[in-house]
Amino acid sequence: MTVIGIDLGSHTASIAVWYDDKNLLEVLADDLGFRSIPCVVAFRGEETIVGHSAVSQQHKNTNNTFDEVRSLLFNHEQTHCTVPVLERDLTVEEVNSLFFRNIHNQVKQQAGKIIREAVVTVPSPLDEATKKRYIESAQAGGIRIKSFIDDSTATLLAYGFDDPNTGASRTLVVDLGWSRCTVSVYNVSSGAIVPVHTLSTTDVSGKIFVKLLADYCAKEFQRKHKIPCNDNKRAMMRLTRECEQAMKTLSTGGEAMIDIDSLCEGIDYSSKISRARFEDLLSIPIIHFKNLINNLLQQCSIDASSIQQICLAGGPSALPKIHSLLKSTFPNSHFPKVRFETSEAQAIGAAVHGKHLFELVS
Ligand SMILES: Nc1ncnc2c1ncn2[C@@H]1O[C@H](COP(=O)(O)OP(=O)(O)OP(=O)(O)O)[C@@H](O)[C@H]1O
Ligand SMILES: [Mg+2]
After folding, report:
1. Does 96 contact ligand 1 (Cβ within 6 A)?
2. SS percent in the chain: helix, strand, coil, step 5
3. Which of 103, 125, 172, 189 has the smallest set of CB atoms within 10 Å of its CB?
4. C-alpha closest to that of 170 among 334, 59, 20
5. How far is the CA of 263 from the centre of ligand 2 (A)?
6. pTM of the shown model
7. Which superfamily is assigned to 3-152+345-361 in CATH?
């Protein structure tokens, strides 16, 4: 049975497919070639727009654009979203179903067949009401959720710790995503994964890193042109989008260009950001990151030297600053070599879990 692994993050989703007939696991790219899809749904006239295309038009169509749509599933105070262009409200499940429908269509287009069964990642165990919202949204979008898997376990599966031939080790999982950072210690041995302890914080996140960079750029713009742009919502939205791209560039490159035509009052913005400058801006969240790690070790009474492996997940965990900090804190550890991006780990782990589920029944 072919199965989809969906990492449904607060900010972006990634899709992996396990093909049983080809014994192949593949991360899918969307029709624009991106391997992660922003969780954004927008409405323009009769048209529904999802993902990167929805992000591109967001600053011109804010009232009809809904970002971080997964987060809506967790907010039980909110049942509907008002969509002015449709002159009606949609339920939270309807908005999310449009996102799932887009995943369904992407898979159909690229796999060349309809695949309905999926395993979906979740940040923590879901209560029954939230589970129902996920299942209904997916079903309306053409996807049947076979099972949920938590983000950290999915990471370990992507790194192959389900393999019965793996030796015993103590492993740290660092999931640094858009909205939060979660660190977990596991004892793994012969395919068995035993959780020891987990801590999470919203004081360290991709969102905070990008905001610090966007604020820095806004200040630079004001200094150069004597025009404040940080209270201009549209300008800050465009700046944030470019800074997000710059953060990605800085995980491999030494510098990144940020260029925006007519950012504020018709004036263009252009700046070159070095990796060193970006890392300087992150000093406060980096302190929070160190504290998170220290608290984790303290609460499970283990020494840093006993961590043998570190598995990274989430886009911003690819930043060299995070890597070097972990390397110096955990001198006896290594980072297992993998062929995927950190942002793809959990979709892969979800597909591996799907594969195991179907192996059990067949
Ligand atoms: N190689 C990279 N280096 C730095 N940042 C990256 C990289 N790849 C992706 N990102 C950034 O990672 C962010 C999204 O991360 P991720 O997909 O892990 O978040 P998420 O799963 O939606 O969030 P959360 O887990 O908090 O719910 C985006 O801002 C993206 O630009
Ligand atoms: Mg995530």
Report:
1. no
2. 45, 30, 25
3. 125
4. 334
5. 30
6. 0.97
7. ATPase, nucleotide binding domain (3.30.420.40)
